[in-house]
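Archive entry: two folds, one per protein. Generate the first.
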Amino acid sequence: MFEILEKRSLNPTVTLMRINAPRVAAKAEPGQFIILRTDSESERIPLTIADYDRSGGSVTIIFQIVGATTEKLNHMNEGECLCDFVGPLGRATETDGLEKVAVVGGGVGCAIAYPVVKKLRELGCEVHAVAGFRNSELVILEDEFRAVSSKFILMSDDGSAGEKGLVTDALKKLIDSGEKYDRVITIGPLIMMKFVCQLTKQYDIPTVASMNPIMIDGTGMCGGCRLTVGGETKFACVDGPEFDGHLIDFDEAMARGAMYRDFERRAHEDTCSLFRKEVN
């Protein structure tokens, strides 16, 4: 059984859980993901691996409470067990041979960016990390980023945390100051990644974007996570989740990602109503 060893709130809408999953922890790498079910009747949802402890046999996941299943997951507590916890899935982040990298994360995407920064630093790479949030209340993993980054820049839309502005402002400032990067890796909201990739294309810097579209089976069979990359259809679950950011059709990805937003919102509201009835 996949016991919840630790549960911790990172901000009002984001939760960290550490799960007992020795077989997953043994092979997990940054950039990969798992698919879980809270119970036998639950839907399958993909979550990126935020950290792992091979010796302790645990895997850390960080999730935003946006739909019915993440709401159910957030109501589970330490000592309870998940029904399924399958992985690691997807292709790991390519980290070998890189000497200097900028990793740009936004919002809950910073949970995915963190293990990438950590692994690169362990390999001796100089890593500059930029993390962006709407405001100070939504900041996550600041101390963790500072501990593993050669240089860390915190940005917020309203200036309540770090510097005021967008992650692209910080990245442009670094590049214009003379920093030379082998690669930029960006992870976060689609609109953010789109503009990061547009910026780096101007400077001809190779850029990788981590895509997290709608996903069902995680094995390439359902086709739900399809993307257009360089004019070709790719599947995030088996071909990615990381792709050449200069070749991704972000507009198509954003349109597809919005298709089920209203359904997800209603399902979340219905689930919240059920939990309120149980409490009353």
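Generate the second and append.
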Amino acid sequence: MTVVSAAVPALDYVFHPRSIAIAGVSAKETPGFGGGGFLQSLQDIAFRGPIYLIHPTAPAIRGIKCYPSLAEVPDDVDYVISSVPARLVPQLLEDCIKKNVRVLHLFTAGFTETGDAERAKMEQAVVARAREAGIRLIGPNCMGLYVPASRLAMMQDQIAEPGPVGMVSQSGMNASEFIRYALPRGVRCSKVISFGNGADLKAADFFDYFADDPETEIIAAYLEGIQDGPRLARAMRKAGAAKPLVILKSGRTEAGTRAANSHTASLAGSLQIFDALCRQAGALRVESLEELVDTAVTFQFVKRLAGPNIVVVGGGGGASVLAADDLDAAGLKLPALLPDTQETLAKVTAEAGTSIRNPIDTTSLWLEGGFEATLRPCMEAPNADVVLLHTAFGVGFSSRFGDSRARMYEQVEVMTRLQKESGKPIVVAIRPSTQVDGFTQTLEFQDLCWRAGIATYPTIARAGVALANLLRWQAMHD
């Protein structure tokens, strides 16, 4: 699935700073946002290098010595985070030039996105001066980087465990929400980039980088606009030829286009043209942030499907009927199980109120030995490419049959073994609970599943769309 370059990507140094300075940490600021938020995030993830704070008057903030200006920091600084007002950025940039800083991350907003001509002119001047000095800019108006291996975090609760998914986003909120939704489902990131206005480094730069990055196997993106269309097209084709590339594009409506322009000064462009570009690049365009996360989960854990035939197993006739509709609408097929498979299932399934054709609606899943006896024939069915188990905690059968916690460990063990023996994937849709105990058990089961290499989804419909996306990508690249 992955093709990578043996050479170190040109922008690799951006993601591996040895030291960081933060300009704009308020002496009164509480942790959470702005300069103080970045400091807290870097401390939480245990950034390994020194962190220098720039403040005009404070001797120290949270026990860390402050310097009146970046120029007065006695040591080398690789990477600077700017949380100062826009009017102070030109002077900060001059100090960066004096210190031979390599990367300036402008969390600072108030440039082109304001719509003010003078602010736009100032942004252009900052970019020109930085390029002249060999400094790369991330931003303005962005959250910057989350790089687990380098212990870089843009927000709190971002863990230091790396993985194969690279994500690039014009929105800091959507970058952080992608991480927040994806981590509990087992997605681990190589790098996540929020680049805001993209005055210097743009989406094309990061697609180029991810295409060559050996630590990135799957590329996800949120784009608001098209900057330098021909170059973006080349970068998307390069990335899409090397790795799965999944893009959420805003500005699909007139209202969204206006919002994108006021958010990051982005011109959204024609959705039809962008769809054509995605097809040429072998990339997938998705419709929501949730679908972006679901598809990343699918590429990381399912990896490949032999075909569209899916067998659905669970308890509850209504849920099964809706599952059939949702999965068929997504483009998957629910074939009737062959007579031999049905005969095997009939031996462990009560006759009343059940179905063994597909979807399979049965209470045998919760009886001793019933889980494997039900799932194994489905996995071994010659007309099944993937099996979807749907379940829930805190209500119904799961709350009435024995120790639910012990059962979830047993079920994961069985699914792991059957997945390995059959060579086919099992995926799990865990319907949400409305009770505290059920919600806690849902999270625990979700964690057990992904650690065993099993993809999980919050609904059957979302699982169907994500699996169909994988098939769509395979069709473009096989």
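Annotation attached to the second fold: The CA atoms of residues 45 and 159 lie 6 Å apart. The mean pLDDT is 90.
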